[in-house]
Specification:
By secondary structure, this protein is of the alpha+beta class. It has five helices and three strands.
């Protein structure tokens, strides 16, 4: 049986990657409102995803207001696709008599 990527398998991180894989980029406030996570929780999960190389983080300012933008990296897209392939393989094993 395939081993699932534990970084992606955590539900909040899976949701983050699913959102980011569908857009070019997303800012912190968009992800907060879309995912319903707390600021600290979102930041902690983004740190893990960035450490894994799955998310790129760009910090800057809009005037004097901090602005953080997130992008799913190519490695993140590939890891997410592999994660779905592994789940399909597991489902295939469980569907056998």
């Amino acid at each position: 049986m395939p081993e699932l990527d534990r970084v992606i398998h955590e539900p909040a991180r899976l949701r983050i990657l699913m959102v980011l894989s569908g857009v070019d980029e997303a800012d912190f406030n968009f992800l907060l409102s879309t995912l319903g996570l707390s600021r600290g929780n979102l930041s902690a999960h983004m740190d893990k995803l960035e450490q894994a190389g799955y998310v790129a983080i760009e910090k800057g300012f809009n005037g004097k207001i901090p602005h953080t933008v997130y992008r799913c990296t190519m490695a993140g897209r590939e890891a997410l696709a592999e994660y779905w392939r592994q789940l399909d393989a597991i489902r295939g094993l469980s569907a056998q008599p």
